[in-house]
Amino acid sequence: MPLVNNKVGDGCVVGTENTLIDGRVLVDSLMKVVACYRQLAACVGSCTDSLELRDELRQTREKAQRLAMDICSHLTSHLRNKSLPEEQRKELELLWVSFSSSLELLHVDMCKVFNMGDTFCLANTKTLVKTGLQGGGSEVAARALSLPDLHQAQTSTLPACLEIQERSTMEKEISQIGHMIDDMEMKVNVLRWMVEPHGTKQVDQLSCSDSTSLALMTTDEEQHEQQSLCQRNPIFVLLLLLLVVLVAATLSISIVLFS
Amino acid sequence: MTIRNTLRDHGQRYRPRMACLKKAEKVVLEMQDPKTGVKSQPQRLVITTIPHAITGEDIIAWLANRFQIDAQEARNFGSMLAALGYIYPIQDHKRLVIKPDASLYRFQTPYFWPTQQWPVEDTDYAIYLAKRNIRKKGLLELHEQEQYNRLHKWMNHKWDFIVMQAKEQYRAAKERRKPDRVVFECQERAYWVVHRPPPGTVSGMDYGLDRRIDPNAEEVKTPDFYEKVMIFTQQSIMRPRVKSSVSLGALVKYCATYNSHDPFLSKCLPSNPWLTDDVTYWTLNMPNVETPTKKRVERWTFSFGELLSDQRGRNDFRLFLKKEFSGENLAFWESCEDLKWGTAGTVREKAEQIYKTFLARGAPRWINIDGKTMEITVKGLKHPHRYVLDAAQTHIYMLMKKDSYGRYLKSPVFKETVKRAICPEEHKFSQAQLEQNARNRRPSVSPIVLRQQELEQKAKMAASVDITQLCRFTTPVPHLAVYSGITDFPSSNASPSLPFVTNTPVCPSPISLALDSTSVSERRAEPGEVGGEGNSGTRAPATGHVSKSRMALSLRRLLRRGCTPSNMFASLSPKCHSAAGTSSRIQPISPDQPSQAPPRRIGNFFQIKVDIPPECRIYPIESEDEDEESRAASRGGGVGAKEIICPWESLTPQNGTG
C-alpha cells in the first residue's frame, strides 16, 4: 500500500485538504486491517489454528503497526498546529477519535492472542478446540494485506520455533502500542465529547445478499427449505457478462453488415 | 471508549478473580479431546454441513461419567458451562441450558471465552449491533434496539468509527467460505447472549462490584506492605481464643439446628422461588403476615436474636409483653435500634426523646437498668452519638433474653401462634408449568413502596402506644436516687457540679421533685425575702449577697421543716439562668425571679385548678401540697409540657422560665 507522506507547510489550505484525504485513507486502511485481525484472532485456539495462521496474524499485526505509526505522526503534527482552520480541525479530531478507538481494539486483540498463545500450544493439537471451523483465515489475511492472494511459498519456510520468537516480539509490540496510546493522550488534547460525527444512526444497507447466512440457522431451526442466494452471485455475474458480450457481438455484426 | 488514564485513576476498575473460569476451561479442553472427549457429529444444514456439533445427551453422559455424578447434577454443570459461554446451543440460542435430548451444541472459540482480565466493552457491542443492522435490514430485537439507541446516545462521538468498523468487519467476514461465516456468526451471537443477556434472564458472568486492586498484579513488597502484614499478625495474636472443642461444638450445634431451615440443604416449602419462579414462598414469609409458617415459628425458639430479628416474631413478643405490662423494655430496645440506624441529623433529638421517655427519673415508660449503666449512659448523653445507648440497650436485651423470653416461650400467646401456624404443601411443577412460571415472572413490589408502608406501620404503632400502661413501678424508687447525684439533677436546672450526693429516704414525689420544692421554698421564702430584696434591689444584683441570704433561709427551713437534703439543695439551686461555666455550688439567681413569684403564689394558694399534666396525674398523689407544687411547677416551671430536663440542657439558658 503506497504511503503518502505529505510534509506540507502550515498555512497551505490545499495542503490541509490533502492531509485530510490522506488521513482518511490511512485511517480507513487501519480500520480494515484491525477488522481483519479480529477475524483471524477468532480462529486462534480452534482446530484450524496452525503456523500459517500465526504467521498471517504476525503479518497483519506488522502492517497495522506501520499504519499506526504513520497515522500517529501525521495526525499529531497536524493537530498540534495551532493555525489550523476550525473545520479542518474538526475533521482531524474525528479522524483522531477513529484512530484511537481502532488502536484500542487492536491492543485488546493483540493481548488476547498473546494470552491464547499461552494456553494453546500448536505442538499439542489435541487441545485445539473443535469449533466447527473448516477453513483458515488466508482470504482474510489477503484482504488485510491488500494482496490478491498470499504466496503459498512462504508457508513452507516457516520454522517450528516461530511461536517462541513470536511471543517475545509480541510482548514488545503490545507494550509499544500501549505506549503509543498513552503518548497520544499526553500530546494531543482532543475533547472527545465535543466531537460530532457525520453519520446517522441507522446504518445503510451494504448488500442484502448475505442476509441469509444467519437465516440459514433459523431455517434449520424451523426446518424450512430456502434457497441461498449467495452462491448464485458469481453465476449471475457470469451470465450478465455473457449477455453483454452477446449484445456487443450482435451490435458489431450489425454494424459490419450495415456499413 | 475509556479515556485511558491508567496511571492516575485510583478507582475500582478491576474485575475480581473468577477462579471458576480457569477450572471450566480445563473441563472444556478435556471435553473436546478427539479421543476421550464428547463425540461430535456434523450438523446438516440446507446446503452445507458443519462439523463438530455435539448433542445435549452426550454432554451430560460424558460429564456424569467423568466426574462420577448423577445425571441431574451433570445437567446443572453443563448448563453452568453454557451460562458462562463455553458451550453454546445451536438451536434455541437464547436459552443457555443443556437439554438432555438430541439438541445440538458447539464449543465456543477461545477468542470468545469469558475472561477476567478484559471486561466486555460497550464499543464492541455497538459494533456488533451495527453489523446486525446491516445484515438484517434493521431487524433487531426490542431490547437490542433499546441498547442500540442508548449506545448511540452515549457513544455518539465515535459513532462514525463504529459504523465504519462494522462495515469493515462485515466485509472481512465475507471473505470467508460460507460454512465458516455461519459458524463465526453463531459464535458471536452466542457471545453476546452471554454478556448482554435479554431482559428477564440472569447473566452467568455477573460478578458483583469491581475491585480496587488488580488481582493479577503481583503485590509489590514495599515497606508499607510489610507494615500491613505486621499489623495483621499482631491483631491475630491479640484475638481472644476459644478451645477448638468449644468452637467446633458450637458450629456443629448451629449446623444441626439450622440444617432443616436452609433452602440449599433441605426442601424449601412450598418451593424455592429461584428454581420454580413461583413466589408463594416469599408471600407466605412476608414480614407482617398474619399467620406465619411452622418453620418460621420454629426459628423463633432457637434464640432470642432470631425472635427479635423477625418482624412477625417481634410483634408476637410485643403482644406478650403488653399482657405482662413490661412493654417498655422492648420499646426502649427498638428506639435504641432506631437511633443506631437512623440518620445522623436526627441522633440528637432521638437521644433526647429516648431519655425523656425511658431513662429519666419519673419518665412515663421508665426502664429498670442498674446504676453503673445509667451513669455511663447519662454521661454519654451530654454528647449524644449513635452508640450512646449501647450499654443500656445491651442490659435491657439481656434482661429480656434471660427473663421474658423464657416466659414467652411458655406463654399462651406463643402457644396460640404455634397452633395457628401453617405448613404449606410442596409444589410439584411439571416442565411445562415451570416454563409457564418463567414466562409469568413479574417484578415484585417496589422497595420504595415497602419502605413507606414500614414507616406508616411504625407511625401507627408509635401513636397507639399506651403510656397509661404505667404502674407504680415507674415511680423512681428511693435507693435509685444514688445516681442522680453528681452528674445531674435532671429535674432541676441545677449546674452539673453539685458536690453532694442527695439521699432522699422519702420520695413520695411526682416528677419534678426538686423543682416543686424549689418553687415551694421560694414561695415560702418570699415573705422573708421580699424585704431583703427590696433593700438590695437598689443595689446592683449582688449575687453573693443574695446567695448568702438564701443559704441562711434554707438552713432555717431545714430546721423548721426537717427538709430532706434534696429539698435543701433544690432551694439552693433555683430555677433560673445559670451562668455558663460557673463552678460555684450555688447558682446566682436573676433578680427577676423572686419578684415574679409572689403574684403567682397568691393565685395558687387560693385557687385550686385541676390542671395537672397527664404524667403527674397517675402518680400516687399523697398530699395536696404536692399537688399544688406540681401545678405550680407546671406553670411556674414552664419547661414545655414535661418537667424533665435533660442533663445537657442544664448548661443552656432556660427558655420560658418566668
Sheet with most strands of chain A: none
Give the CA-based shape of chain A.
flat
Derived from helix and strand composition plus strand pairing, the structural class of chain B reads: mainly alpha
Describe the main β-sheet of chain B briefly: 4 strands, antiparallel
The helix tally of chain B amounts to 27
Percentage of residues assigned to helices of chain A: 55-70%
Strand order of the largest sheet of chain B: 1-2-4-3
Radius of gyration computed on alpha carbons of chain A: 24 Å
Element pattern of chain A in H and E: HHHHHHHH
Overall average pLDDT of chain A: 77
- What radius of gyration of chain B results from the CA coordinates? 38 Å
InterPro entries (chain B): DEP_dom (IPR000591), G-protein_gamma-like_dom (IPR015898), GGL_sf (IPR036284), RGS (IPR016137), RGS6/7/9/11 (IPR047016), RGS6/7/9/11_DHEX_sf (IPR047017), RGS9_RGS (IPR047077), RGS_DHEX (IPR040759)
GO molecular function, one term (chain B): GTPase activator activity
Subcellular location (chain B): Membrane
Keywords (chain B): Membrane, Sensory transduction, Signal transduction inhibitor, Vision
Report on this structure.
Chain B: Residues 580-595 have a biased composition (Polar residues). Chain B: Its main location: membrane. Chain B: GO terms for molecular function: GTPase activator activity. Chain B: InterPro entries: DEP_dom, G-protein_gamma-like_dom, GGL_sf, RGS, RGS6/7/9/11, RGS6/7/9/11_DHEX_sf, RGS9_RGS, RGS_DHEX. Chain B: This is Regulator of G-protein signaling 9. The complex is a heterodimer of chains A (259) and B (658). Chain A is mainly α and 259 residues long. Chain A is built from eight helices and no strands. In chain A, helix 1 (13-41) packs antiparallel against helix 2 (51-79), helix 2 (51-79) runs parallel beside helix 4 and helix 3 (86-119) packs antiparallel against helix 6 (162-187). With 658 residues, chain B is mainly alpha-helical. Chain B has helices at residues 19-31, 56-67, 71-84, 122-135, 142-154, 159-174, 178-195, 223-238, 244-258, 273-276, 280-284, 294-300, 304-309, 311-324, 327-341, 347-359, 371-380, 390-409, 412-420, 431-439, 447-463, 513-538, 543-561, 565-572, 592-606, 614-618, 624-637, and strands at 41-44, 49-55, 87-89, 104-107. Chain B has a four-stranded antiparallel beta sheet with strand order 1-2-4-3. In chain B, a hairpin with a 4-residue loop joins strand 1 (41-44) and strand 2 (49-55). In chain B, helix 22 packs across helix 24 (565-572) and helix 22 crosses helix 25. Chain B starts with 18 loop residues before the first helix and ends in a 21-residue tail after the last helix. Classes of the chains: A mainly alpha (259), B mainly alpha (658). At the A-B interface, helix 1, helix 3, helix 4, helix 6 and helix 7 of A face helix 1, strand 2, helix 4, helix 5 and helix 6 of B.
